[in-house]
Design a protein that fits this description.
Mean pLDDT: 89
Strand content: 15-25%
Number of domains: 1
Protein name: Ribonuclease 3-like protein
Number of helices: 8
Family: Belongs to the RNase T2 family.
Bound molecules: 2-acetamido-2-deoxy-beta-D-glucopyranose
Order of helices and strands: HEHEHHHHEHEEEH
Radius of gyration: 21 Å
Strand order of the largest sheet: 2-1-5-4
Largest sheet: 4 strands, antiparallel
InterPro entries: RNase_T2-like (IPR001568), RNase_T2-like_sf (IPR036430)
Pfam family, one: Ribonuclease_T2
CATH superfamily: Ribonuclease T2-like
Distance between the termini: 60 Å
GO biological process, one term: RNA catabolic process
CATH topology: Ribonuclease Rh, Chain A
CATH class: Alpha Beta
Structural class: alpha+beta
CATH architecture: Alpha-Beta Complex
Helix content: 25-40%
Number of strands: 6
Amino acid sequence: MAHHIALAFLVSFLFCAQNIASANFDFYYLVLEWPGSYCKDRSVNGCCKPTTFSNYPLKEDFLIKGLYTYKASGQPVTKCNNTKFYVNALRNSIVDLYVQWPSIKCPSNNGVSQWSDAWTNYGVCSGLNETAYFEKALQLRKKINLLSVLECEDIYPSDDFCYSPYYVRKAIRYGLGADVGIKCSKDKSGAFQIAEIYVCVDKTASKVIDCPVLPNSNCGRDVFFPDFYNSMLKGISASSFDPLEMVTSQ
Ligand SMILES: *[C@@H]1O[C@H](CO)[C@@H](O)[C@H](O)[C@H]1NC(C)=O
Ligand SMILES: *[C@@H]1O[C@H](CO)[C@@H](O)[C@H](O)[C@H]1NC(C)=O
């Protein structure tokens, strides 16, 4: 009898352990950040050129903020295992990362710490290896061209106009075929501006889907979609710095 109970415990333990190991996510949020809003965000201290900027200036376009693993219930799925981050695993896509997934935080930096955070928080839950996880994010970013989707509906970055967030979402729904979430920040004068667009993507990280759950929108009735130019990024001394050179020459 005792044996049976012990066995039942063992079986249920193994079963649960396996459930935890495969504690699975249901979809991804590809989060795209509008740098023009980041530069004007009253809660941060401006925006800075990445240290790789002189060799790899940014396109004046949406940046990748993250590719987040989520449950359909709206819970993030994070830190599933301790697989380490190696910047060398990104050598084939590093130039795209400099341009599409840079950090424009001040002080200037080379982006590595945000990629490392992306991997250790979410990437390790994706079931992809590090190389594939970042490549998927880049491929999605290339496929999802929000600026042209918005332009088709006459929504342009501008410091002069504001838009109804409802209209912006509708324009994106029309262009991408799926609803997205919009998060706003406030500029220095307290006006709402479009900070991030949450696009939902299926588990294979290849198709845009309707969001199982939308992040809470915190936008007012009108939002700005401010201009962005590379010239808005605060400069650093000319020395450019390539994280891969640093790592591979160790
Ligand atoms: C950890 O997660 C990564 C990414 O999902 C996966 O490639 C790797 O096999 C996992 N490692 C372990 C030990 O479960
Ligand atoms: C990462 O995953 C991709 C896709 O499954 C595979 O082709 C590649 O060989 C893997 N790379 C490593 C270093 O395991």
